[in-house]
Amino acid sequence: MSIGVIEIKLTETIQIFLLPLLYALVMGLALYLAKPIKFVGSKQSKVAEGAMVLFIGVLIAKLAISSGQSLHNIYNVGPALILQQFGDLGTLIALPIALLLGFRREVIGMTSSICREPNLGIIIDKYGFKSPETRGVLAIFVIGSIIGTAFISFLSSICASVLPIHPYAFAMASGIGSASMNAASLASISHLFPAMATDLEAFAGCSNLLSFCFGIYMCMFISIPLAEKLYGFLSPHIGSDDKPVDENYDIEGVKDDKYVASEDLSEGKLLRWSTLLVIFSFIVAVGNFIGYHSPIIDGFIGMIIISLITIAGMSLERIVPWNIQSIIFISLIGIVLAIPGVPTSGFISHYVSQVNLATICTAFLAYVGIAIGNDWGEFKKIGLKGVIIALFVITGTYLGSAIIAHITLFATGMI
Question: Are 91 and 223 in contact (CB under 8 A)?
Fold first, then answer.
């Protein structure tokens, strides 16, 4: 946070913002990869992966509280929030490019989604772990873990500077089903439009919640069938089915789901969660003071509120007998507690508003940088071709969602 935001002007109208969250990500990864540094290794990387489960909950809780505060505005833009989900189909623009680069049936796994955990599970279940489709989704999964957050931060700052699309639409497009990418994109947009920050957080949070809830069905029933049909139509004309598949990006072993833990609730687990979140809250409060000059005590109280909501949601996932992810519980609790008129709204909104989302993202992404160190070897196997496809996949879904949201907002008279 001490370094601050670095603004790079490409032209008079096009600019890129280097935010503190990017420095934290890079420094976290550098600590893992730097051989002389012995105190950050594989064990610490796995600890960071476990901590990320909690810290993603913190991000979701912060956005949920903003959503509760802006519930009236969310209601007004409801059609745009729903319809922009179809922008996820923008990932398919990468399919012909993948064919041109020499991939075959891998393109179905690579381009039918942004290839996060739920999508990975669908592809493995449908095609089998040894299938080319699974090799494709695993390749983009690893690339997204390594570069997705940094890339979408750059992408959102450039698009918001150049394209005649409303900031609300960009905020909705940020909710692509990845908490870290959502937060990184939103941080860039909020920096450009600080007066709209609360509404932007609300729209991004609700959009990401919808992606978590309905994205899996979009993938199963729409995008995968479309990818199959598009592959069947294009493959005879682009590339050759006789061309051997490039095995250099084949990844052994299914990646563990970093965001959903299935262990039973216990006193020891609650104690570990509480300890981690108190430490994290203090780090964020100090960073918030350095970066935004907010009182440390107010920031710490705000983070404790967010942490309690996170623990409640994580606990309910393990108590409730149905298979409902903690992010759903966290989102619902945060929204309800912050709705204007609810007795808790004033207290929660006052203190949580003292915590800047970018500060939470910065602290969170330092852990992400350490955690993705374990994937670095696999990332190098995939090669440049896989990276190119991943960038088109992320760009396609982001711009597709933003364009649909903007058109819907305009058609309904909201902008």
Answer: yes
Residue where the block lists tokens 């398919």: 92
d(CA 324, CA 336): 18
3-state DSSP call for residue 7? strand
Q: How confident is the model at residue 239 (pLDDT cuts 50, 70, 90)?
A: low
Q: Nearest-CA neighbor of 22 among 43, 37, 7, 40?
A: 7
Contact predicate 215/88, CB 8 Å: yes
User: Can you tell me which residue has the tokens 């409640």?
Assistant: 312
Helices (H), 112-241: 117-127, 132-143, 149-162, 167-174, 179-192, 197-218, 224-234
User: Residue 323's CB: how many other CB atoms inside 10 A?
Assistant: 8
Q: Which of 214, 206, 303, 317 is nearest to 257 (CA)?
A: 317
pLDDT digits 0-9 by tens, 242-278: 444 445 444 444 444 443 344 577 888 889 889 999 9
Domain of residue 64: give its range: 39-256+270-411
pLDDT of residue 337: 94
Instruction: Give the count of domains, the chain.
Output: 1
Residue 365 scores a pLDDT above 80: no
Report yes or no: 355 and 294 within 8 Å, Cβ to Cβ: yes
Judge whether 395 lies within some domain: yes
Q: Tell whether 12 is covered by a domain.
A: no
- What global pTM score does this model have? 0.71
Question: Is the model's pLDDT at 126 over the cut of 70?
Answer: yes
Alpha-carbon torsion, ordered 207, 358, 374, 262, to 10 deg: -50
More confident: 53 or 404:
404
Q: SS3 for 326?
A: helix
Phi, psi of 9 (to 5 degrees): -90, 115
Task: Report how far residue 225's alpha carbon sits from residue 231's, in angstroms, rounded to the nearest whole number.
Answer: 10
Domain assignment present for residue 374? The answer is yes
Q: Would you state the structure tokens that stand for residue 344, as one six-digit string?
A: 């808790």
Burial degree of 286 (CB within 10 A; 0-12, 13-18, 19+) = middle
pLDDT at site 74: 78
Give the tens place of pLDDT for each residue, 196-238. Answer: 988 898 898 888 878 866 777 788 889 999 999 999 999 888 8
Residue 18, classed as helix, strand or coil, is: strand
Question: What H or E segment, with its residue span, contains residue 401?
Answer: helix 376-411
Structure tokens at 123: 């592809």
pLDDT of residue 93: 95
Is residue 220 in some structural domain? yes
